[in-house]
Write a structure and sequence with these properties.
Helices cover 73% and strands 0% of the residues. It has 51 residues and is mainly alpha-helical. It has one domain.
């Protein structure tokens, strides 16, 4: 199981949210599926709204 709590993950997902990386590119960098990138993006969006 990959550690998906690291700052590298947050940076990659943040760049995907900003449109600087595609979901496919972020998935390849992190070694996870495109669908999981989408889930992480949704989670980060929710944290930004709540925070």
């Amino acid at each position: 199981m990959k550690d998906l709590n690291g700052s590298f993950v947050k940076v990659a997902i943040g760049r995907a949210l900003e449109g600087k990386l595609t979901n496919d590119e972020a998935a390849a960098k992190l070694g996870i599926s495109k669908r999981y990138v989408q889930k992480l993006k949704a989670k980060m969006r929710g944290e930004q709204i709540a925070g």
